[in-house]
Amino acid sequence: MKKIFTLCILAAMATAPVMAQEEEVITPPADLQTETYVAILTTGGDQTYYQNVNIGFYGENEVYMQGLAYNGVPESWVKGTLTDGMFLNIPKCLLGSFQYLGMTYEYRFNGTTFIYTPSTGQFYAPAGYSITGGIGSEVYATATLKPLVEKAAVPATPTISFGPSINGSTYVTEMTIPLVDVDGDPLVSDLLSYIFYYEKDGVVSELTFTKDLYKKLTEDMTEIPYNFTDRYDIDNYEIWMNQPKEELESWSKLGLQSIYRGGGEENRSEIAWFDMAAYFGHDGIDYIATPDTDWSGPIFNLNGQQLQQPQRGINIIGGHKVVVK
User: Fold this and answer.
1) What does DSSP assign to residue 190?
2) Phi and psi angles of residue 21, each rounded to the nearest 5 degrees, phi first
3) What is the mean pLDDT of each run of 10 residues along the chain (325 residues)?
4) 56 Cβ neighbours under 8 A, 6+ residues apart
5) How far apart are CA 236 and CA 229, in angstroms?
6) What per-residue confidence (pLDDT) applies to 305?
7) Residues 320, 297: contact at Cβ < 8 Å?
């Protein structure tokens, strides 16, 4: 899901004030050296999000951060000044803009102050920060940035759902690709990717997103990097399914798997599956239930509601229509 939240008033900080300056897009020095941090972001609704941030120290007291924005311009930078060795004051700035469907969307960082702890390399913003503009706003109640050490890890299982688009003319797959491993430890986003599968006629295949269906792609893609977006059909929280409806209806299942290459290893998550047959309610009866019918796997009625056990009549079991008498 998109991390877009309604605006709220951030609590006033009891630390050094943020100095105002004219808004401008920040460009880091060409020779800036950065390290990868994990941003642990909380919202007023007690939700926690993880994302990677690149941080570089420059000169005596300048600090540059890339990746505080999640929506629209994740490649953007902010710049702060470190005072007294512990207060990082980041003023307001224009993060950047992008065009979508003929519209130009601008994003702005509203300024904040981080408390820096040199012994741990950690930054903490007790009042969080907010980003406004574009097609929505990001508001975080607190923000903690910690140095991220690469290691071998098994990525957590993603989630997947499928349904009609807003205009109702096509379909959209929404997903969550957790930026943590199975133990809840953060991952390096540049080392994370994902892949889709579909089951058709009992055969599971990898799904390739082709240039003929996805006009913004410059090449066919099967494995998609976590940070990739074509700013049109593909993002790391949703993908528009441009395949013909009759093709989508022929799939019995749609799967999603995360892949992590860290610490010299490649590890894959469990595959999250969505029951396409149950969603579309395929016509035709595949089986008549008998005393030895296998009831394992998800069971749905024709309305797509999951059942604990088969009911009398037509059920969707394992992607097949089964009649229970």
Assistant:
1) G
2) -155, 165
3) 32 34 80 96 87 96 95 90 96 87 85 97 97 84 95 96 80 94 95 96 95 96 95 89 93 96 97 90 62 73 74 72 71
4) 28, 32, 33, 34, 35, 63, 64
5) 7
6) 73
7) no
What pLDDT is stored for residue 319 in this prediction?
Answer: 65
Q: What is the pLDDT of residue 311?
A: 80
CA distances from 150 to 77, 144, 177, 264 (A): 23, 18, 18, 10
Query: What pLDDT sits at residue 287?
Result: 64
Distance CA 93, CA 106 (A): 11
Cα–Cα distance between 299 and 316 in angstroms, integer?
6
Predicted local distance difference test score (pLDDT) of residue 80:
97
pLDDT (0 to 100) of residue 1: 37
Alpha helices, DSSP H, located in 196-315:
245-249, 276-280
Using CA atoms, how far apart are residues 214 and 234, in angstroms rounded to an integer? 9
The CA-CA-CA angle for residues 302, 308, 311, to 5°, reads 50
Distance CA 256, CA 204 (A): 12
pLDDT at 104: 84
Residue 278 — φ and ψ, nearest 5°?
-70, -35
Q: Answer whether 89's CB lies under 8 Å from 80's CB.
A: yes
Relative to beta strand 320-324, strand 287-288 is parallel
Residues 6+ apart with CB under 8 A from 310: 289, 295, 299, 317, 322, 324
